[in-house]
């Protein structure tokens, strides 16, 4: 038991390797080898810029938060339907580098390519391509290209292109290109939408080249955002350049390096690319900003930037890596690291950008941020890199104004309602039953915030931003439902969509009601804490938000009286009020090729009227608040949902796996985990070309740490209930908690907890309180 | 008590009169004075063709069933979303007739207009305009223009234009124009849609003129339908024509009649206009078809056509008129006749067209047919002109194939699902929560059919078409729900929208479940009847539909086990499962100017989460099947819905009025009735410009006959429970029933039933069986 599909790439601990160039798998591989630093994202495309069509490849370069808008058209628009789209814009490409040996252009589609390997070093955060190429005319060269998107200099992509003439001497031309005639593939990556940045959307404002630099500045037509980008070059040995020339047109430019190549002597071109937007510098000084940045990068040189990159990445792995040992564990190990690598590199880190459901790896979902960030990704960062978690929360806090305005559009006089999908903080979902109706996004954000506060103890964040966010989200819950006489005065929330996208516009979605209650509880606690500890802070909030303590009184009433659907016969919590009443799902009526694509093949009403669930919904709520349920309850509910859930979302199996652990269904848990670990690496959903599934990737971490190791944070305290999958000998991971670093190692008959950093730590293992009182201290439990 | 607004037009028994030409009220008046025969519709525009803009007027000429399609764009399309729109197309105008006295063109915006009256004679079906005009240069003419859309010749509009020079002799020029450069006002009349036949959609195929005729043929760009139209003229005295000339361009043409006008001598131009489409004749022979039709009309002459028109209309009024006597009754009398007139003239009569919610009076709702036809309009025709009712049912039967295909799209393997809005039989609703989800359309059509069969006893129709329609609609109900364990095995229907458009995608909508059950019952009875009486017919159906008797067994189980939401505390039937749980509606939170326009000012989720109802929903079901409820039950439910219903639909008040009668709330009933009677005539909704509200207009008839007189048809038997509104002395109406004509007269202390035609009739008055056994016989009951 393990993976469900043969591995696409060789199974390696720390690398992903492409062993041949192949047009058919190119589009997918571009995602696999995509690099990012949370600010810039660039797809794993080739420097030769092969002319792929819309089905075989997409040159993609993105800057987090940089989008274009189009007028959205509706069959019938509703009040509050977003009028403008937000699509992560595909930006000018500067990676393009063409090589000519005499008149022969290097292309892997001509001549003969040998010793080919493209390697993503996940450990180092560097992508390398090596090959030996013989031109049709018989010239032989070794080529090695290195590429990284710098964590140290967030505006910089650094490249190093080495050419070694093996059997000839003669003219070698290197052409470094800036190509701004680019466009999104919206129709391919978002087939359901009929708008989008079709065609070239950047209007060029400036484009020039000289013999070392190329520069471009352009502005989007509707969103009116300005991007500037450029590249700078170092050729070595510098004396080898026989001639350098350049040209610049409206939408492209190039520098031509002509070199007298000598057999056995390596030519190296270092190339630094910079992207910056009018968020980084005023439009008028963007030229200087980019130029300065490029010169700085050039001065440091490729090698130094790569060293820094490794340092940064090693630091990440030092905390975040999960090691497993056991049968076939290498495949899983590779999957885990692949997932962690992409999650890590994709997260916005500047406090004004979030993390797209596809990271910055492709155009899928238009680059939008969803709840995926808070419920799947944030817990990983909270325990491994809380600084990144904080910056992602900052992004949400920074869009509170838009969320307040949105709450008004939805008829709430107070509070803030976060958008279901967005880049700029405004709602971009064009189909509200699967979009705005997912009010749970509010509670999801509050949940992640509360978890961050608990795990870090970051009180100043709580006072500065956290309390406000908790209050503003809670207020919408207090207005969205009502105490229903016909339900014994319980608080009911109607007409929402829970996480499960096959059951839309329902009443009393279990997950939503549960999460809303906890959102309210966190807000009540926040207010109570401030009243006790920092009345001035509370007063300031009261003033700023027009908030009064009466509201907290109402919240308490709601908390005490929240309604939950309950099925007496089965003693389970149905998904919502109407779930049990629906027609039982009969998959035999669905042709196999349509089974995983219901919305593509069936009318929403057909889907809605059946008793089945797309993904973890009530079960997710029970995982997040598992201390509120007995194991017996969890088991009954799990058994029920196990039967009715189709797992048609990539966000589902990892959650089921976690709950399966909790109730002792270890085999099932392992199956789910394995599914999650290599889902993207082996492209289970056949849509990896459009970008990574960030939520599931983060879910893999959770499946181990929260699943197998049973980590929960309850009233700011850590609880573990570790189990070991039968096929494994051992697994190890680390988590950060209130400034400490705890290493956890689970073996068949032995649990080991080590306080790697920090003065002392307290936690629970299988409900037993454990305290390690000095750095380096260890707690060992024989099982 | 009576009408809620001052009358716009003078209160007259049989006429609607416009007493001045006024640009501000023109758009509305164009609807008031629109004429139709169910095939052609032409708005009440002026012959002078004033250049009104999109806010002040719309020259509109329509042919029932003639539409153009556009690709519909969606923010996010669903499987099964209609891809092409259907919009009743605005066709070339031929009414345009310009008059020149010397060089001075007649225009009511120049010179002086006196003795002005535009009169719609509802009794005759003729529109007349008379005036005395003095040109700026002092020439005085009397003008009288008569216009009718012929019931006798369905392709013909006939006009007579009389000019009497009062104080001068000299050249009078008459220009008869064909203007094909026309377009729809979709953006104004359907502000919510972002598609539509914007711009000129007919591609001219042919346009010619000679000295008596003009002809045009054009084809739509997307729906590929061909229209031909033309006009023919008779000038008299014929010798007065000094010169006749003509011209024809790509999109317009004209005939110029130059006349030596003499003081005191009348010049008359008769003009006959014909419209025909490729449904009337093969495209190649449309020229001949139109030409022949025009020559026939011309040969008969205007006067004869007007005589025929009167004959036809008088015949209609002979059966359909409702007379009332009492305080202020004239206002209501006028409203009733206005409503009946428009309903009568708007209905498609050729079996391949239906009746638009706006008739053929404007572009509102894109000219679509809705359930309005079956639930509001058909009962009126069934009792007054069953032949028209049958033709409207024929239209639905004729689109069964499209409805079957639609059922498949919705995932039903058997049966037919009729579209929520359509022209050509295919679904045209672009927002399924308010469109396709209104499955009740199926039961509505079945209800109207069953009522037709009961009231007419038309067995051959039943066998030929009726049984098939009942079976095919029933089959969808048997697949849409399921026997829900959690509801004691009762049959639940989830995720539908009832008539109430503020509560969408609900579970167990009371109206839907009730109507579905009765649809199934009618189907069961149909099958049982055929098995007994005509096994060959049943066998043919079994073969044609792949129907088996097992299905009828399932239907019976569903009938016995249909679930209905019930509120124990209040002992009422809530609108649906979730209705009672919603937030109570607090109108004080809604600014007055937004109260009647919720969808324009509030997000659907805001509307959905509140406990209020847009229109009669459960109450409508209780009216249609009132024999299933006790008076006490009706009263409790009425009281409840009275409180929560906002009557934001024009389909609401007439139904509440009917139920109010049944439970003895006479004053309230009267108030509702008055509201309905003059709703359009006095433009209560301020949107009459876009077209009539046909459903409410028909609802006025129902409010009297089914309301005050309490008519119900139960197991094919008629029941009356007449009451007299306190302000009235008397009201009289007639109904057709199984070939007989019954006159009903209700006075304060006396009920009189007369069998005007037919050999005998049996019915119930306040549950007492009455039989009149000879033509002319009378039953009188003193009260």
In short:
The structure is a homodimer of 783-residue chains. Chain A has 783 residues and is α+β, with helices and mostly antiparallel strands.
- How big is the Rg of chain A? 27 Å
Most extensive protein-chain contact, per-chain counts: A-B, 61 and 61 residues
Strand order of the largest sheet of chain A: 1-9-10-11-12-19-16-15-14
> Would you count the extended β strands of chain A for me?
32
Question: Which percent band covers the strand fraction of chain A?
Answer: 15-25%
Count of helices of chain A? 19
Task: Please specify the SSE layout and strand pairing.
The structure is a homodimer of 783-residue chains.
Chain A: E1 15-18, H1 26-32, E2 35-36, E3 40-42, E4 61-63, E5 67-68, E6 87-88, E7 97-101, E8 104-105, E9 112-121, E10 126-134, E11 140-149, E12 156-165, E13 170-179, H2 186-189, E14 202-209, E15 213-220, E16 226-236, E17 241-248, E18 252-261, E19 267-277, H3 286-320, E20 323-326, H4 329-346, H5 372-384, H6 386-398, H7 400-409, H8 440-456, H9 459-480, E21 481-484, E22 490-493, H10 510-533, H11 535-545, H12 549-561, E23 583-584, H13 598-601, H14 604-608, E24 610-611, H15 618-624, H16 631-644, H17 653-662, H18 666-677, H19 694-708, E25 712-714, E26 717-720, E27 728-737, E28 740-747, E29 750-757, E30 761-765, E31 768-772, E32 778-782
Parallel strand pairs in A: 23-24, 26-30
Antiparallel strand pairs in A: 1-9, 2-3, 3-4, 5-6, 7-8, 7-13, 9-10, 10-11, 11-12, 12-19, 13-18, 14-15, 15-16, 16-19, 17-18, 20-27, 21-22, 25-26, 27-28, 28-29, 29-32, 30-31
Helix pairs in contact in A: 4-19, 5-6, 5-8, 5-19, 6-8, 8-9, 8-10, 9-10, 10-11, 10-12, 10-15, 15-17, 16-17, 17-18, 17-19, 18-19
